[in-house]
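Example record

The entry below shows one chain as it appears in the dataset: sequence first, then structure tokens.
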Amino acid sequence: MAKLLVIDDERGIRNTLREILADEGHEVEVAENGKQGLEMSQAKAYDLIFSDIKMPEMDGLEFLMKLKNAENDENGDATLNGECPVVMISGHGDVETAVQALKAGAYDFLLKPLDLNRILITTKNALESKSLKQETKQLRKKVAAKGPQMIGESAAIQRVREIINKVAPTEARVLITGENGTGKEVVAHLIHENSARANGPMVEVNCAAIPSELIESELFGHMKGSFTGAVKDRAGKFEQADGGTLFLDEIGDMSMAAQTKVLRALQESEITRVGSDKAIKVNVRVLAATNKNLANEIAAGKFREDLFHRLNVIPIAVPALNDRTEDIPLLVDYFAGQICDEQGIAKKTFDEGAIKALQSKQWTGNIRQLRNVVERLIILAGAKITKADVEAYA
């Protein structure tokens, strides 16, 4: 039985909708206007909301926008229904109003006089859509619950684990260094998941993947009209990570202008959106990673020394795979199981000759390269992978 809310200032329409939907087995409550409806949705979670547009005190569009923007409210109560589908109802066939409602997050738009079949079909589809979104979210949580894995028992990787265990519960900033593909992102996730901020967001930014002219907007957000293409206000990654962790990957590729703003954000715990002069307080733990030698970058005038010292409170150097080849058997076994599960096939095994052949290779791409090679061998070789297979396909 779904919980529904009907908001309409016309008693006849409220009662008619309540009767129709109750006959379908739903629990239905009613409100006389948007203000009352918002108060009810702050106090109780609903599966679907029907709302008229033209109402006194608070119209339907204002109600919709307040409901959908609830996650940004200081009180936070209305987050109960931030993802609840809302069907808007109007007595006027105004295309502009319909478009405005749909852009604001409405699930559908119905015209008066209401058609019984349309109401029932819309209700069924909206509830199914909400159910599918919830199932997807639960599946994502299950996948996330498995968490990142740091595979290996070598002395080098054990040292990294020890540092993670010591630093994770603190608020200290961490600078993670290492070659591409060594697992710097895994280290960052492990720190976050073992910290007091684990229930908060973990927001990642690949500084190398964002054009230099957009990095400030990406990190700090922007105001509508602040530059070409800024069609609405947008929160940046610092705001999105508020209460959690911000992971700045490949920070050595960040522009000097952006470095200056990041330094200010770390010093003052506040940011300013592009195109605004209003400071916004943020509570963020920053983790950074790079494959570059920042000392060399500082000497070349490409990285701020003061920012380096702000970030490098706890350094973690992730070893290259070539420096811990004794972990390759465990990594191969882990990747083989993972890949075979993904492919839906029985797990394939690697014989001793294959493992030794893999250990004798030079891994310029580190763990990422090893996983690709294991996947290639699983696809191209037989049930038992041999040294000959490694020589042929790796």
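Notes for this example: Confidence is low (pLDDT under 50) at residues 71-79. The chain has three domains: 3-143, 155-319, 322-393.
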